Request: fold
Amino acid sequence: MTTVVNLNGRLLPPEQALVSVFDRGFLYGDSVYEVVRTYRGRPFELDRHLARLERSAGRLALELPWSLARSKTEIERTLEAAGEFPSEPEAAPWNEGEKSIRVIATRGAGELGLDPALAVDPLAMVMVTPLKGPPASKYRTGAACRIVGIRHDAPEAVDTTAKTGAHLANVLAVSEARRWGADEALLLDRDGLVTEGASSNVFAVRQGRLETPPLAVGILEGVTRGVAMALARGAGLDVREVPLRSADLALAEELFITSTAREILPVTNLDGRPLGSGQVGPVTTRLHALFREHADRAAQAR
Reply:
């Protein structure tokens, strides 16, 4: 199979998984979601992802249709129904045949209007699709990032620490990055501080230290970000959450981004220029190896 959708507990092929045009997730982005990946067919860091889903819903005062226990059950049902997926062309070895799990909850449908009280029938969905991570070559040669003109939303304007369906700024950021031939967009806030990628967290190696923007700038607390920081500290690296500017990234010895699908992806080109030596650096290489070992151990322990 290629994709299986679990819509409010019903397992369906994608062409039969229909959502009302009055659903607030469609109309207003009034929804929360998580993306989980598998290793050896088992969900990785599922508890952390579901806990973050619950936190995101709480920040939007959105009542989740399923309990966390029910969510786990439905994810397992959907994974089982999906069966085995063929490997993607050019997939990294650790991504071959693996799956991506998207868990979505919306406030529901109802009468048109912004008032959340108009919503009825909250919607819960699980989608299982083939994992589409970067090609294996990107881990050898590095990716390209672009600091884009689109600014990161101000934390006081909207809760940027919640993972919601309102992603227009990220969409526009990726569009701008693609026009420059970059793999990922990096966003600054209105004060010129580096925040995060359009769908990733960013790390710099400077003077032997591993640095990443603090959560206080209004970024999403990435699950892979947290695992990477814990592994780096366990390996004796000096890890710091500090404000960074674009010049700090440009002068970094190494740069990498983290996300569920990308794991720890080296960046060797920033804004069209080689970064550091222009090669994948030793800290990034070591940390990615530690991450791969950790993920494999976690999968075998399930």
User: Anything to note?
Assistant: The CA atoms of residues 146 and 266 lie 14 Å apart. The mean pLDDT is 94.
